[in-house]
Amino acid sequence: MSRYGVRIGSVLALLIACALGMQAPAPAAERAAFAFDGRTVVFTQIIPQSGGRAISIDDPGLRSMLDRIGATVTWEQGERYILITTAEPVVISFALGDRRYDVGPVTQQAAFAPFMLDGHAYVPLAELLHGLDFAIKPDGGQNVLQPQIASIDIESSGRGAKLIAHAGMPLDARVVSEQNGKLTVAFDGVGTQLERTRTLAAGPVRRMDLRTSGPAAHPTTFVTLYLAPGTTHSAPATDDQRDFTIGFNGVAAAQPVAATQNTPPPAPEPGAAEASGSPSPQMTPAGQVQVTDVTPESQNGTSTIRIAVAGAASYEWHRLRPPDNRMWIDVHAARLAIPPLDETAAGPVTAIRVHQQSPDTVRVALSLAAFDTVAVTPDATGLTVVVNASPADETVARAGAGMTGAQAVAAAQPSPSPGWKFTPQAAPSNYAAPNPRLIAIDPGHGGSDSGALRGDAIEKDLTLDISRRLRAVLVSRGWQVVMTRESDKDVFAPDDSARDELQARDDIANSAGARLLVSIHVNSFMNSGPHGATAYYYKDSDVALAQAVDKRIAAEVPVKNIGIVKDKLYVVHHANMPATLIETAFVSNPDDRRLLQDPAWRQKMAVAIADGIADYAGTPPSGTSINGQ
Amino acid sequence: MRTSRAVSIVVLLVIVAGVSWYFASHRRSPVGDRVTVYYTKLDGASEVPWTVSMRPQEANESAAEHLQNAVLYAATQAVAGPPSDVQALRFPVGTHVLGASVNDSTATVDLSGEVKNQSAGVLGESGQFKSLVWTLTALPGISQVAVRVQGQTLSTLPGGHLEIDEPLRRSDW
User: Fold this and answer.
1) B100 and B144 part of one domain
2) B167 and B118 fall within a common domain
3) Which chain A residues touch B172 with a CB distance below 8 Å?
4) Which of A308, A478, A530, A615 is surrounded by the fewest CB atoms within 10 Å?
């Protein structure tokens, strides 16, 4: 009986559930209680949503929590954007119906889009809390809203450095121990999900260990810093917001970031290089880039390879497809200043080989135990390669390039504050360019397709002119260039379909194996109102390129900057490589049209696009300069 | 004893099946009495919601039919554009909806040939389709929109930029 009973029961339950489901009632709101800041806060307007939970922005519990941390909500019935401004202030911006949301300058993707239900706006709970630097932690029978240390960063300046910690609540820190070159600082009331151990670039702070202990409601996070011998530090200081700083070797704790970066490094002193444990760039003969040290280190399933580079160098790295788990990093125009290295290691990196690959290239080759997660990060004094014993998605980037030295530091300085807050990268491309020195330029329209027209301003002519200027600038900087058309013609055939025409352009860039594609266009509209320049993207891998080019256009070209816009544009979608379509200005707007017809303005636009490409792709990989095709 | 238990199970199942069939066939349309139409502002990025009233489900109209009619109605509203005093990106003059259908979560909209008369800019072209896609995906159960022009699937409009051969989703913008 009991067996039948269970079966009948489950069948009945299923059928009744089906019948009720057809009525599709609105999901019932849930209550969720959290311990927060010594009291209990109850969210009453939470509903389950695909991929997570949604909370009404009007939830009284949420509002009281936001009040407590000094955050405000800006939203009114009928508006699309929901803005939460923290005390810092950082603006967390959601838009109804759009999965993308912004935390400060960084756009991220939520599990689901905010939506309206019964007159209330609902936003993704986990994403909101993450934006506020909070995490939900179970503690016995309750859940705790735990403020998080969102970032700890070391900023180097000369021989000194500054540690900056940032969290979801004002930080309260105390030094708990200081001996044998180890400095331990305790942060009460905050947890962290940052990596447990970080080996740092040579400098006063060499390693940092993080440990959180205590119950989730009353956590303490201990940060242990391993200091180079002879390092001095300032007393911990906190500004009025959520930053906490310690200065090393004479750098003031609360000194503004910009000031320290603009200070030239102090003159090298005898013994200073030994004290910091790293060769000083000033000791390098002028004009000669050198790889001065390569130090592998493995612990807790992570291998860290520090490549010390004296001078600014361009580098690129490649990895092979699984199951061939090898990768290499080439430092260009550089000499190896230490004996070649060839040794086996334990950990995710099983072997390392360092040698002078060619007269001007130093190669660091690694054998990995598996297709693990790899990060290659440049900084002022070289490169750090971190290999984690966690399987990488097979679609991750298998190549990359950039600059070490001052350029790496400049590139790592995002313009809007808070710059050092953890900065997710736009999705890296999994595209390894067969010809990394080749840039594809697509002059929009042409031949039988004039594009937009206003009087004697014809899109196909303007795009070709700007493209030719762009090619000249790129070639002068050492790039190779392939153009989808060099004259006023259809790329596929006269009077062809737009698809054939656009695919033919993608085919040229794809078969040439170009590093990236820039399609040059002129916008138009039915009335003269809209004006300005827009960088369009579609694939995740396009974002960084579109951003870089757009930023330079905004800075260098006198035209309104509309910004970067996602759009399913055929030519961008079907390019294998990162691509962006630049609508340089509106031919339908009289002021923009005047600009478009000015050769000096078109030259500025071409230079700005080339500068954006340089910001994105660095300098061309080494080799003698070859003129464009 | 055993037989009677089996019989009672069968009877129970028949009743439950009957009840669920009743609910299924008399299922109320998930579309309410209002439909939100989105218009793309001249910046090409922001969508402005505009509420229009939708007639209720009729007695002889199934939920699926009501949804399909709502798709046709909402698409017609989106293509027609907002009142003339509202600034918005509009479809080319004369564009109208020839037909609409729903298959699973895909709404298919057939547009008249006037839609090909684009003004050669990405802004207008993109904004028009964004408005259409946002409007239809606001309807319950619709997650993507397939575009036909005079019954044909086109990769792009003539001289156009936007790819329209695959169903478009909100995430394409």
Assistant:
1) yes
2) yes
3) 538, 566-568
4) A478
Which tokens belong to B124? Answer: 């207008």
CB contact under 8 A, B16 and A12: yes
Q: For the structural domain made of A30-132, what CATH number should be given? A: 3.30.457.10
Is A565:A617 a contact under the CB 8 Å cutoff? no
Query: How many structural domains are present in chain B?
Result: 2
* Strand, coil or helix: A496: coil
* Topology of the domain comprising A288-411: Immunoglobulin-like (2.60.40)
Do B173 and A452 count as a contact with CB atoms less than 8 A apart? no
Residues facing residue A53 across a β-bridge:
A48
A115 touches B at CB < 8 Å:
no
Same domain assignment for residues B57 and B24: no
User: Which residues of B fall within a CB distance of 8 Å from A498?
Assistant: 155-161
Closest CA to A467 of A538, A386, A521: A521
* Per-residue pLDDT tens digits for A568-624: 899 999 999 999 999 999 988 999 999 999 999 999 999 999 999 999 988 887 644
Predicted TM-score (pTM) of the model is 0.47
What tokens were used for B96? 């109208």
Q: Please give the residue range of the domain that contains residue B110.
A: 31-172
Q: Given this structure, which CATH class describes domain A148-260?
A: mainly beta
Test A568 with B157 for CB contact under 8 angstroms: no
Q: Are A54 and A125 in contact (CB under 8 A)?
A: yes
Q: How far is B99 from chain A (nearest CA, A)?
A: 24
A506-538 confidence digits (pLDDT tens): 999 999 889 999 999 999 887 788 889 999 999
